[in-house]
């Protein structure tokens, strides 16, 4: 597993991974359109990442493409939020359940520690057993409110 910092070529590979192996709602905010990976949704996916990571004036997070054997299988991100850094991961279907999420979580945690941030946070949903297992696996405290699960791990 290798984390490749997002740039335009990596973003093109990431879109391919998303289209071939993930549902739009797993990887981007909702877009009003027909179901599936329509041209509008593909364009919104690219703009979403350009705005949040690639365009210096609007960037709020660092994003990496998760590569396995040279092929994009998902994305990982770290977003500074106050005194915390929020982590996020998605993997394409074929890459799930093989321990990749665990390796990526460890890499994000190491990067958060390196940056000196006091708290590592993440959020998921109650039914997302994979994400919950990943987060409790690193020792994060999980708090559920309704369908939302907030995870927090102090780093200092
Ligand atoms: C959530 C996700 C990142 C987990 O990554 P993964 O590579 O599939 O997880 P791993 O194979 O590394 O497994 C990590 C742990 O979760 C458990 N796990 C993984 N998928 C699971 C599932 N569907 N149900 C129950 N447990 C699961 C594994 O058994 C393992 O537990 P262990 O540490 O006790 O052995 C991945 O499944 C995914 O991208 N899902 C879709 C998008 C998403 O939900 N992203 C997170 C939003 S917050």
CATH names the topology as Aminopeptidase
Total beta strand runs: 7
Note the run of SSEs as H and E.
EHHHEEEHEHEE
| Biggest sheet features | 7 strands, mixed
CATH class: Alpha Beta
Strand order of the biggest β-sheet: 1-2-3-4-5-7-6
Mean pLDDT across all amino acids? 97
Identify the bound ligands. coenzyme A
Structural class: alpha+beta
Shape designation:
globular
Question: What oligomeric state is this?
Answer: single chain
Quickly list its features.
binds coenzyme A; 37% helix; alpha+beta; Aminopeptidase; 156 residues; 5 helices; 7 strands
Describe this structure in words.
Helix content is 37%, strand content 31%. It has 5 helices and 7 strands, in the order E-H-H-H-E-E-E-H-E-H-E-E. The chain is globular and about 45 Å long. It has a 7-stranded mixed β-sheet with strand order 1-2-3-4-5-7-6, with helices on both faces. It is an alpha+beta fold. The chain has a single domain, classed as 3-Layer(aba) Sandwich (Aminopeptidase). The structure holds coenzyme A (COA). Coenzyme A (COA) binds next to strand 4, helix 4 and helix 5.
């Amino acid at each position: 597993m290798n984390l490749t910092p997002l740039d335009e070529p990596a973003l093109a590979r990431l879109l391919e991974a998303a289209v071939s192996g993930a549902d739009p709602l797993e990887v981007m905010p909702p877009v009003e359109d027909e179901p599936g990976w329509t041209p509008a949704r593909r364009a919104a996916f690219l703009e979403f990442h350009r705005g949040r990571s690639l365009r210096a004036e609007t960037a709020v997070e660092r994003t990496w493409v998760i590569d396995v054997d040279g092929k994009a299988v998902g994305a990982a991100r770290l977003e500074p939020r106050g005194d915390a850094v929020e982590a996020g991961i998605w993997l394409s279907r074929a890459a799930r359940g093989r321990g990749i999420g665990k390796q990526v979580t460890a890499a994000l945690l190491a990067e958060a520690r390196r940056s000196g941030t006091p708290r590592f946070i993440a959020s998921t949903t109650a039914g997302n057993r994979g994400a919950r297992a990943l987060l409790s696996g690193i020792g994060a405290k999980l708090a559920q409110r309704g369908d939302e699960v907030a995870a927090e791990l102090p780093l200092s």
